[in-house]
Amino acid sequence: MTYRLCLIHPMDPRGAKVGGIETHIRLLTQRFPDDFSVMLVGVDARGDLEPGKAVKIKTGGREIDFLPVLHFTDEMAAEAATRITGSLTFRFTLALLRHYRAIRKLAGKGPVSADLQRFEFAPVAKLLSMPFMMEVHGEGGKDDKMDSLIKKHWRIYKMGEALGLRLATRALCVTPARVVSVSEDYPAVAKKIEFMSVSVDTDIFAPRPFDVSDDILRIVYAGRLDEFKDPPMMFSVIAGLRKALAGRVEFHYVGTTDPYRFEEFAEIEDVTIRHGFQDMQGVARIMSRAHAGILTSYFEGLPCFMMETLACGRPLGVLHLPQFEIRLPDYAPLIIEGKSGVMSQRLEDREETAARLVEKFMQLWRDIKAGNYDPQEVRGHVEPYSINVQLPRLFARHREMQAERFQGCRDTSSSTSSISVS
Length: 422
Description:
Layout: E1 3-8, H1 20-30, E2 36-44, E3 55-59, E4 62-71, H2 74-78, H3 88-98, H4 100-107, E5 112-116, H5 122-127, E6 132-136, H6 154-167, E7 170-173, H7 176-185, E8 193-195, E9 217-222, H8 231-244, E10 249-254, E11 272-276, H9 280-289, E12 292-295, H10 304-311, E13 316-319, E14 341-344, H11 350-369, H12 375-380, H13 387-405, E15 419-421
Parallel strand pairs: 1-2, 1-5, 2-4, 3-15, 5-6, 6-7, 7-8, 9-10, 9-12, 10-11, 12-13, 13-14
Antiparallel strand pairs: 3-4
């Protein structure tokens, strides 16, 4: 039997959009088992494809069916919308409905199931009569700092969350904190929820020995500079290290956000190397040349950046987050003081918060140079979240859902003819 996985998310796998969800979806399109075929319903970021017309593309050496339903460039996606009707999520949802027949035709008659990363798309999957896995990523609350419209329209977001979980066949929470909060908020759906974080490709992100020969501390951050990541704090910490180390520090930023939107960036512009968009291999190369990662977010899940940094054998300097203290039977903490990084508390005084994390980084740097951090041991903390451990579990869930819905169904996956593009 051949199984069919339908991914629905507003991204172009050929594009440069970065983020944890995008990384997760790229892994699903590149690391699926041989008994699966994969289709991605997304957006055309290049403007060279016709919405509603399926094409075959290769991503990571694997062929998938790609059905764009909307033209939307990566530059447009990087800008936070100011109105619901102007948001990518809203426009993408309308496009899904507009091209409903094309999606259904490409999906075939079964066995097929969908994997969703946004609650808003749950009604579409239900309309398509697909069993679907709802992956729950969001971690912040209505009082947290956000760039998106979620903060402004929190009540609408929560209504969508409730509906998405109710309609879902199964649900995965990508952090233990979300398992707890979702189970408390929606006890009626708790039985179909389990914890499974996004995965890290431990084949690409591999440990390398530290190079301390030139005595320059290299710190890396990869991802969007969203407001909840607190970029001003991140830049202030780098500025503090620049002063403490007499300029012998480099900040390596991998991503497409303009850092100049934050005035604090001016203090570290001369020690910053901006790498722009990088594929996973490029990110891994940059991380392997760095000594540590930095994370200063107000809230987080289990970000891909953190797991990729650890997989490269690099410790992190982080501001404490409540979810670091949550314990579940199947959850192995990632940040352990002195083992996989250093952690400092967020205080009311921002200058003091930055100064304390600077002190932590200075100790981390001394320990790295003294040989107290072994890249292989650092990597060990992320092994439970490897693609080799987690993706088989995820695809097993999809087999189970499809078997329950399409028992006895022969392989009738899409016979839609598609052209090939690169």
